[in-house]
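Hey,

Quick one before I head out. I ran the complex with glutamine overnight. Inputs first:
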Amino acid sequence: MAKFIFVTGGVTSSLGKGIIAASLAKLLQARGLRATIQKFDPYINVDPGTLNPYEHGECYVTEDGAETDLDLGHYERFLNIYTSQANNVTTGRIYQTVINKEREGAYLGKTVQVIPHITDEIKRRMLLLGKDDKYDVVLTEIGGTVGDIEGLPFIEAVRQLQWELPEEDCLVVHLTLIPFLRAAKELKTKPTQHSVRLLSENGVHPDILVCRTEEPLNNDIKRKIAQFCNVKPEAVIEAADASTIYEVPLMMLREKLDVIALKKMKITDYNEPDLNRWKGFLDKLKYPKSKVTIGLIGKYIELQDAYKSILESFIHAGAMNECKVQVVNVHSEFISNENVGEKLDGLDGLLVAPGFGHRGIEGKIVAVRYARERGLPFFGICLGMQMAVIEFGRNVLGLADAHSTEMDPHNNNPVINMMEEQKKITKMGGTMRLGSYPCILKEGSLSAEIYGATEIAERHRHRYEFNNDYLEQYENAGMIASGVNPETGLVEIIELPNHPFFIGVQYHPELKSTVENPAPLFVHFIAAAKKYNEKRLSVKNPLLHSEMI
Ligand code: GLN
């Protein structure tokens, strides 16, 4: 059986529990241990799939089609492994299981209660990934902040496991904040003392305290925290602000977080950490040789977490190209034919983002046209691809009313249509086309060249698709379907061969981009933006399409 590390958070939210958990897992992995991470979220939604991105940021989709918390994206990007439905559990899912069992009569007439039935189900799921000898260490991040009412059953489950498991098989890491009061020029330990006390009142004793701080923690402060919070001084870890999240594993290595964890878990069989590829990536990220500006056209741009995986993919792809990628957010609602030139001025590439619903789509279509006509590298993801299809239909094929039935259900030219299997679905949660599907690439296409393969698999999250009734018309006019699902014939990729880089994908390539394996489409999109940038700076305005290709 594996060993279990629980990561809790105190004082305030947004301290970066996911990054600390992922960094510790990365270090253990770099030392040769098999590590995975899971997230337990206290909210009642069964999964975050039905949540508005403004509420909870992006919904991350796993290979097996689970709609999960965006922290799973960090886990995959750091560890370069796949996670699954089992790696993200919410209160809603726990209750759903327990209530279903109760309806089946599985509790044999007992009163079903939070303790033991809910906590037993939480514990069962916490231990699940540790079975079958797949992992040496399973890390569990507990969402929310200690003291939240809805988090109590999770904390209680950790308490029981801390008591039930052999001492060396269970480790609790508590992430906390040491604020610096500028007026007093002092770091304050009291909030941390309170949060550890709150945890202790619930019966959980932390083994390691990771302290977020803006100022270095000297030994006196560390000793004070250790003494008042009842942990060893070496188990008080400083987590200073980092310039990039990808620096955090190295900072934690310097602070010996991994060594302390290994010692407590009595793991003696480990190697010196192999972080060569990670460090290579960081060097390229920190010392870029060029710079490009990419416009991210979306409607959730006020909240950066809404496009988390896309922004991280740009970081991976930028490093690969030794190029700094500056992302400029452009709100699609405010783009019109009149101002598009001004709004998109100075860009080297355009990414039209995924999304749902009507708001802001006309602006996206105007932006696609601008990119298509000027030879500006264009990358459309999911809804972004669908907008490229609509734009081409309207402005090249002359189908003035071309649209998606998502926005215009009774349209005469539904170039984007609801998928057949979606038509009978009435429930919202977990019912889209989700997870990994294979895709065959057309030989000689840009997509095939970029992937260096003819068969790929990518992850999906959508209900609508390219309407194949129009395929011939599109291909004859120069927009080709360069990627198609081998079983269903659904169009997965469209491209314009007579454009420097114009690709739209129905799937989400950003979900599989990791530090060690950046998504090929992002890497090549940035390479195309670099080329555009070089030309843009070397020719006089205005740029003409013919100049760019
Ligand atoms: N709303 C579109 C669909 O459901 C696109 C979804 C997306 O961008 N993820 O097909």
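The chain has a mean pLDDT of 94.

Talk tomorrow,
K.
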